[in-house]
Amino acid sequence: MQKFEIIPQGPFQLAEEAEYFGGWPPLAADPAAVGMAFPVEGWRTSAAVILRQDATTRITGEVHGAEGDDAAAAWRQALAVVSLDADGQGWPEIGRRDPVIGRLQAQYNCVRPVCFHTPYEAAAHFVIGQRISVQQARTIRLAMARAVGDPIQVGDEQLYAFPRPQVLAELTSFPGLSEEKVHRLQGLARAALDGVLDRERLRAVPPAQALSELLALRGVGPFSAQGILFRGAGLVDDVTEDENTNRAVQLAYQLPAPADHGTVLRLAENWRPYRMWAVVLLHIWLRREGGGAVSATAHRRPPRAARSNP
Questions:
Q1: Which of 34, 130, 172, 178 could form a disulfide with 51 if both were Cys (CB 3.0 to 4.6 A apart)?
Q2: Is residue 231 helix, strand or coil?
Q3: pTM
Q4: What is the average pLDDT value for the chain, to the nearest integer?
Q5: How far is CA 64 from CA 45, 55, 57, 177, 282, in A?
Q6: Over residues 120-139, mean pLDDT
């Protein structure tokens, strides 16, 4: 086990991340801690990272199951999951610039987005979840982690990582998955091994190019491509094009007519360089108080956002 620590740049409360996003396995030995298990990019191993925050706001991390460079990579991945790899010192300023965002920041304590462990896991998530309920998809992912993922011992508890891509590439069937979904997952696994789903690479190329490459993957449509890029790679300053964003903007800004993407982009100029953080904040509010999200099928539109925002 290796230990790391970081002082967040800008406001950050780990408990708020857990409350508004959740999904992490509970740790019986330390319910206040956040524990996550995942394949480490490079795919040599998997790791479990246990995050805690003390009274001084410092974040400490224990990395289990990986050593040396892989442990350091796992720590960086965990920071990216909770958006701690970004400098958030200017995030409150967006709220002073835009009173709607400021009100939501105050209401949700300047919460930052929680992202997928990797773009690879994001892609698998969207493929597994096609045409089934959120709970069914979650159950399948957890079952896959237990069946063919790496187990990682953390004290007296055991956490399970989603299967590494070289394992998923060899998977021929799994309960609850159609033959077509298995083929799609195999393709995603090969793409991850080829570096197509590498987080740093997806962040480095223009968003339009990244979306185009993702759309070329079997089973990845416009909605999934945006999810892989924006919530898998964890872009900080871009804007998704989807009906939930449009609906959240219309309701939060009390617009007389439904918002279109152009309206969202104009408002989003005040959110730079944290446009995605503001979008996620609006989504949290919509889900909790704004009337609820629209169905996922409404998201499936061509992703013009990246083309409009080079």
A1: 34
A2: helix
A3: 0.91
A4: 92
A5: 11, 24, 23, 30, 35
A6: 96
Interaxial angle between packed helices 99-107 and 275-288, expressed in degrees from 0 to 180 and rounded to the nearest 10: 60
Burial class (CB in 10 A: 0-12, 13-18, 19+), 266: exposed
Residue 92 has pLDDT above 80, yes or no: yes
- Return the SS3 of 38: strand
Element containing residue 186 per DSSP (H, E): helix 179-193
* Higher pLDDT, residue 211 or 299: 211
Residue 60: Cβ-neighbour burial (10 angstroms; 0-12, 13-18, 19+): middle
Q: Is the preceding omega at residue 113 within 30 degrees of 0, hence cis?
A: no
Average pLDDT over residues 99-120: 97
Comparing CA positions, the residue from 188, 44, 169, 55 lying closest to residue 123 is 188
Q: Which amino acid is at 9?
A: Q
The two structure tokens encoding residue 257: 């007519």
What pLDDT, in 10s, does the model give residues 137-180?
A: 999 999 999 999 999 999 999 999 999 999 999 999 999 999 99
Q: Which tokens is 77 given?
A: 């991945």
Q: Residue 296's pLDDT is what?
A: 46
Would you list the domain boundaries of the chain? 2-88, 90-110+234-310, 120-151+162-232
Fold adopted by 120-151+162-232: Endonuclease III; domain 1 (1.10.340)
